[in-house]
Amino acid sequence: MSPIPACIALLLALLLCVPWRLLRPRAAAPNRPAVTRLAHAPGPRARTDVRQLLHQMSESLRGRLQAAGMALELALPADALPVVLDRSGMQEVLARIVDLACRAMHAGSTLKVLGRIDGAHAVVNFIDAAPGLDEPRLARCFDAAAARSPRLRGDLDAIASVALCEQIVSDHRGRIYAAPSPLGGLGITLRLPLERTAAEHARGFGASSLLS
Question: Nearest to residue 75, comparing CAs of 194, 166, 169, 183?
Answer without folding.
Answer: 183
